Every structure is written in C-alpha cells, then in structure tokens.
Amino acid sequence: MFKPSSYSWCCWCHVPRVQDHPTATVHHLTHVPENEEEKELLAFNLAQDLGAGTEDRPFIVYRNPHETNRAALKRLRFVCMSDTHNEIGKISIPDGDVFVHCGDAVKHRTSARDLRIFNEFVGQLPHKYKLFVSGNHCVCLNPQQPEQSQKILNNMTYLQDQSIDIEGVRIYGSPWRPKRGCFYRAEAFGYDAKRIREDKWSKIPEDIDLLLTHGPPYSIRDYNRSTGDQLGCPALLDEIVTRIRPRIHLFGHMHSCYGASLYKSEDNEILEGDHMKLNSNNILFINLAIHQGKTFNQPTIIDYFY
Question: What is the pTM of this model?
C-alpha cells in the first residue's frame, strides 16, 4: 500500500520519484507503450472481445460482466479525449451521448483566454452530456472556487471531486496529481504526494462506473520518455485496485502513452494483497491524450451497457 516512503525526492526541484512500489500487470489492447514493447503484453483475444475504441469498433464494456445481452440493457456511448492543447478544432469528434475531456484543453500561458474559446467550441457539439476534468495547464482555474470554474465552463459539467449520475451511470471526476516543484509552471492542481491519498483519493466513492482523472495511476501508461520514469500516482493506483474498482478509468497527461490496457485481478496478487478478488476486478484503463506534437490521436469511443 502507498506510504510516504514510496517516494524519493529530487532536492533541487522537489520532484517525487517513485521507489519500491509494486507495479500493475496489464494487457495492452491498443498502442503498446514504448517502455514495454519487448514484453509482448498485447492480448489479441481480449482486443477482439473488447473492441478497439474507434467509432466503427468501440470498446464494449458491461457493468455486470455476466449480463451481456445487449438487447436487454441500456447503453451510453462515451466520446472521450484529453490533452488537446488548443487544437480541438482540428479533431474529428464523433457523435455520442456523453462527451468527456480529461484536462489540458489549453496551454498554460494563455489558459484564461483559451479556456473560454474551448467552452464555446464544446457548446456547439451535439452530445447531450459534456464532462470536463481540469489538467495541470488550466492555471487560470482556482481550486478553491470550483463554482467559478463551472461558470467559465458553462457549456459542460465541471467535475472537481464530484460525482454525477447520467441516466443511471455513476461517474466521478478529480483533477489532482502529485505536485512537482516550482521549476514547473504548468502545475495547476498539483497536490502534496504524502497527503493526496488521505485528502483526495480516499474520498472517491466505491459505487462508481467510471473514474475520470487528469493524471494516470502509477505504472499504467505513465511513462515519461524524457526522464525514463513512470510518473503516475501510487496512491491512486492502490485506491483504484483495492477499493474503488470502477469498470473504467479515463485519464491523460502522459502524451506518449495514449491507448488502452485491461487490468485483471488474477494477474496482480502482489499489488492487491488481502484485497484480492479473483474474476471480479477487471478494469479498463485508457490514456486519452490527443496531442502528439505535429500529429493527433483520435477520440476514444466506449459503449457502456448497464
């Protein structure tokens, strides 16, 4: 489990580095992260069953894995993305029921102006529901005044440590990440790594279908190619796999790790410990980061049956 000793600290800029924390074993469904290419974890049979996250082959996820008769179930289609950094107008956005953006819609230097432009753009989309979780570039948003952020983003539902029920599907959104040092200017919603679990992640309810954050959990699509580190949050990983257990976790932040991975309890006995529940804790993790420099990834499509 997460403890302050999970981190070592780079003293000159106070950047946390994870040490001696169990990593998650996952099956990559799309886009194997570059730091894991040699592990050959791509599960072709799982990918065939779950889909590819495209408009033609959306990911298919059931609230109850044992109830898969689609004709007897309700469905919501989620159209999901993150890290568009002022380029959302260049992306083809399919129609669906719920538009999801997991943060960094703008760049930090011009966030106050561009977040309003982003809000206007999203207001023109046809989706009935629109959800937004802030990212580290949204430095114009005051974490102490979420009601003011909601006024700025009035064409969508702004989620800062909040739940929302959409036609019976329960979703929770939170923008926090372990904070870096003063060297980093795009540092909105950075939080003390020693306190983030108790103050933030422990407050996430257990009865949710989808979890939205900006940053990834530790060891799941969180690789930073410039430093060679995995920069996800150990406390978030522990809470997700031992207590919260959502069906889907959506995030972004680490641009080069775009793609989807499936977590299965049976592969993670060391990580889950006494909380292990075989065959009851499959979680679809998706890094939604769109912006790839001069190129763009596509939105991820999920059909959720419940």
Answer: 0.93
Task: Give the integer Cα–Cα distance in Å for 269 and 89.
Answer: 44
Per-residue pLDDT for 39 more than 80? no
Residues in CB range of 142: below 8 A, 6 or more apart:
148, 149
- Mean pLDDT over each residue of the chain, to the nearest integer: 91
How many beta carbons lie within 10 A of that of residue 55, not counting itself? 16
Q: What is the pLDDT of residues 4-34, one digit of tens each?
A: 456 554 554 556 678 889 999 999 999 999 8
- Comparing 41 with 17, the larger pLDDT belongs to 17
Q: How many CB atoms lie within 10 A of CB 270?
A: 11
* Per-residue pLDDT reduced to its tens digit, 132-150: 999 999 999 999 999 999 9
Show the tokens assigned to 68. 């898969």
May I ask the CATH architecture of the domain 4-305? 4-Layer Sandwich (3.60)
**Strand partners of residue 162:** 173
pLDDT band at 278; cut points 50, 70, 90: low
The three state secondary structure string of the chain is CCCHHHEEEECCCCEEEECCCCCCCEEECCCCCHHHHHHCCCCHHHHHHHCCCCCCCCEEEECCCCCCCHHHCCEEEEEEEECCCCCHHHCCCCCCCEEEECCCCCCHHHHHHHHHHHHHHHHCCCCCEEEECCCCCCCCCCCCCHHHHHHHCCCCEECCCEEEEECCEEEEEECCEECCCCCCCCCCCEECCCCHHHHCHHHCCCCCCEEEECCCECCCCCEECCCCEECCEHHHHHHHHHHHCCCEEEECCCHHHCEEEEECHHHCHHHHHHHCCCCCCCEEEEECECEECCEECCCEEEEEEC
CB atoms within 10 A of CB 294: 5
Taking alpha carbons only, the member of 47, 70, 27 closest to residue 303 is: 70
pLDDT greater than 60 at residue 299 = yes
